[in-house]
Amino acid sequence: MLKIDNLHVRVGGRDILKGLSLEVAPGQVHAIMGPNGAGKSTLGHILAGREGYEVTEGSVTYQGKDLLALEPEERAAEGVFLAFQYPVEIPGVNNTYFLRAALNAQRKYRGEPEIDSMGFLKLVRQKLSVLHIKDELLNRAVNVGFSGGEKKRNEIFQLAVLEPTLAILDETDSGLDIDALKLVAEGVNLMRSPERSFLVVTHYQRLLDYIKPDVVHVLADGRIVESGGPELALELEQHGYSWVKDRIAPAGAGA
Amino acid sequence: MSAESATAPATLAEAFAARGLDLPTTRQERWRYTNLRALAARRFEAPAARVDVDLKVIADIPAPRLVIANGRYAPALSDLHGLPEGLRVRLLSEVRRDAPDEAAAWRATDATGPDAAFQQWNGALADEGFVLDVEAGVRVEKPLHLVVLGVEDGAERAFHLRHRITLGAGAQLTVAKHHLGVGAHRHLLNTVLQVELGEGAELSQARVQREAHGATLIQRTDAVLGANAHYRRLDLELGAALSRHELDVVLAGDSAQLDAHGVLLADGRRHLDTRLGIEHRARDTRCGLIWRGIGADRGRAVFHGGILIAEGADGSDAQLSNKNLLLSDAAEIDTQPVLVIHADDVQAAHGATVGRLDDASLFYLRARGVPVAEATAMLTAAFLREPLAVLANEALEDRLTAALDARLADAARTAG
Question: What mean pLDDT comes out for the span A195-222?
Fold first, then answer.
């Protein structure tokens, strides 16, 4: 599904990712944890195709394709979805109109027929009822006037409608209270399937109480320094990130 | 007439000189960004006696509807069904014939001096226009559509129109004016509009300018608002080679209000120059000015937002926002907000920006699968729609939104 091999990324002259390697199989949920500044958000952005990042070494292969060679909209149509840490407010662009344009653009790319407005409305209503989202969000401009929780749920709603094969959740738990967190996690769990993989990027362990990962990675100083099962997240919760620092030093000295 | 048409018409510069006028130059502050040198050398013929226009050009513009085509009233295209009582509609040609003194008096308030040369030229030559009067207390619900067509007819012509809208105390009217081009003509349209709003009168006015790519439009609007009057207007500048509009509004009575919004879509090689001159001359007057501009391709948008709050106009409130998007390196945008305050206890704010499309918004749309061209069009349309909510008439607003969207879709097709 996704294979990241020795990825080095530079932003504004600074090395952020320094040899990150990771492999995700279909249906798996991988959690990426790490302290602030470890490169967590950079990973999400580079996979989605944001400009301003320079790949100096390494590769990203997604379903056998060179992901880094694709435009952001091509990656989306290939099934890559990034749930933003800070969803952008776009005044004047209607939420439903935008999502239908996105879905139809993806379908067109894949050679599938477009969905008309009636069919789309039906699809949307079905997803809304499953996710317990108020349909008033549909008629507003994209994320404008949404609370923090509503913005994150709108991301999950988009995820549900677009049905990607790889969903990257970039600190989707940040800024959420426990009730909002549970709702978001519930939405994600409903989307889990043997064909769909998740990369859950988070600073805190608590999201992983609700979204059970198959694999947990610790990202520090631009590399994966530790990988393990769900118990690794609990260990981090107990000891904090300070103990991973010991593991960075040798590699850092070598670089 | 026959002797005149036998010889080639004079250049525009010569035509002005013959009347003791000079064409404005970029050395004049008010014309600094609009160079008329190429125009000065061109020769424009007088209006022809008649012009043939296909009805379908105006088919989607509802009645009541009045049409002027190439400077002449077109009764066959007009439809006065449903013209409400209390709204008196006349043509300038009728008034000149039946009440010449009345028509002459309308020129008395024309500005003088070199900056207003086009207005003076209009004063000498204007022979057609819409003259609307609404009686005191009459509220006209249905919008009246005024259509001014420029039609290709094998010649380059100059037309001079003068319109007047007068609302009595407490009267209300909604007017939509459509400047449309038929064929690839290069006419020059020189327009003066005079607006007088009595105490508590309300005028909502839309102006959609979608003239031919070769057309030149010079317009001056002079409005005077009485106490508690409210003038709402929206200008969509979407066409022509050159369109210059001077909008001068005097808030003469206490608590008079102006909401003047607009869109300047300067793509192709279009030059759009809008110059606002708003004067607060009475207490507690208010103006809200929201303008959005696009500079694309080799287009140029010029915006001047002049607000004067005169001595004694205490408690006035003036808000001006002019935001622009520069979408090409060869395009140009000049924006100049000017606020002069001589009164006390005034609230005034103005902001002018020129920027690019927001990268974060563009990436968000693309990351969901919207191709970059479509995402750009979506954000551009959203940016331009903001001023549209001003007319207090939802049906008309929907119509204008559709006109704007259609225009943007055409631009996208041409670009693609």
Answer: 93
| pLDDT at residue A174, rounded to an integer | 86
What's the rounded Cα separation, in Å, for the pair B307 and B285?
A: 12
- Per-residue model confidence as pLDDT tens digits over B274-308: 999 999 999 999 999 999 999 999 999 999 999 99
| Mean pLDDT estimate for chain A | 91
More confident residue, A238 or B162: B162
What sign does the dihedral A113-A116-A120-A123 (CA atoms) show? negative
Q: In what order do the strands lie in the sheet with B65-69?
A: B72-73, B65-69, B144-151, B172-182, B202-210, B230-237, B257-266, B286-295, B317-326, B347-355
CB contacts of A156 in chain B (<8 Å) are none
Average pLDDT, chain B: 94
User: Does pLDDT of B4 surpass 50?
Assistant: no
> What b/e readout covers B184-203, taking b as 16+ CB neighbours within 10 angstroms?
ebbbbbbbbbbbbbbbbbbb
User: How many CB atoms lie under 10 A from the CB of residue A43?
Assistant: 26
| Buried-exposed string B82-113: b where 16+ CB fall within 10 A, e elsewhere | ebeebbebbbbbebbeeeeeebeebbeebeee
The A-side interface with B (CB below 8 A) comprises 48-51, 71-73, 75-77, 81-82, 84, 87-88, 90-93, 98-99, 101-103, 105-106, 109, 141-142, 158, 162
Task: Indicate yes or no: CB of A162 within 8 angstroms of CB of B368.
Answer: yes
Q: How far is B361 from chain A (nearest CA, A)?
A: 6
Closest residue to A72, CB basis, from B367, B382, B383: B367
Nearest to A76 among B360, B367, B374 (CB): B367
Q: Which residues of A touch B369 (CB under 8 A)?
A: 73, 76-77, 102-103, 105-106, 109, 162
Structure tokens at B252: 């003469």
Report pLDDT digits (tens) over B64-87. Answer: 999 999 999 999 999 998 888 899
Per the CB < 8 A criterion, the answer to whether A236 and A205 are in contact is yes
pLDDT for A248 equals: 60
B382 touches chain A (CB under 8 A): yes
Report residue B199: phi and psi, to 5°. Answer: -55, 125
Summarised one tens digit per residue, pLDDT across range B172-183 is: 999 999 999 999
Rounded distance, CA A31 to CA A46, Å? 17
The answer to whether B200 touches B136, Cβ cutoff 8 Å, is no
Choose the closest CB to A82 out of B367, B374, B378: B367
